[in-house]
Amino acid sequence: MALNGTWKIDRNENYEKFMEAMGVNLMKRKLGAHDNLKITIQQDGNKFNVKEASNFRTIEIEFTLGVSFEYSLADGTELTGSWNMEGNKLVGTFTRKDNGKVLTAHREIVGDELVQTYIYEGVESKRIFKRA
Length: 132
Prior knowledge:
Elements: E1 5-13, H1 15-21, H2 26-32, E2 38-44, E3 47-53, E4 58-64, E5 69-72, E6 78-86, E7 89-96, E8 102-110, E9 113-120, E10 123-131
C-alpha cells in the first residue's frame, strides 16, 4: 500500500488553530507545532501498525480496519474510534471521552507526500509529511 513507509513532518496548515479548538493550552500548542513528528506505517491486509515518534513521546498503535480502539493524543486527550479505507484514503472517526465530540482524521498520499487532515468542531488542519 502507498501509505507504507516512514514519513517525517514537513509542514503544518492551520495546526495551531486546530489544537486551540481541541482545548490544548498555548504552551503545548507552541511545542506541538514543532514536535518533529515521524510516522512509520505498515499495513498487512486490514491490519495496521503505526509508530509515532516525536520530541515528546514514542508510541506504537496496532489496529484493524473497522474495529474500534482507544487512543490518547499527545496532550492526554482520550479518544475511542476506528479507521476505515475509503478508496486510497484512511479515514478515522474518533469520539472524545471527555466531551463526546467527534474528531475526524484522514491520511492519504497526495503527489509524493502523506497528508494528514484533522477536522474538529469545524476547524480543519493539515500536517504534511515527506518520505524519510
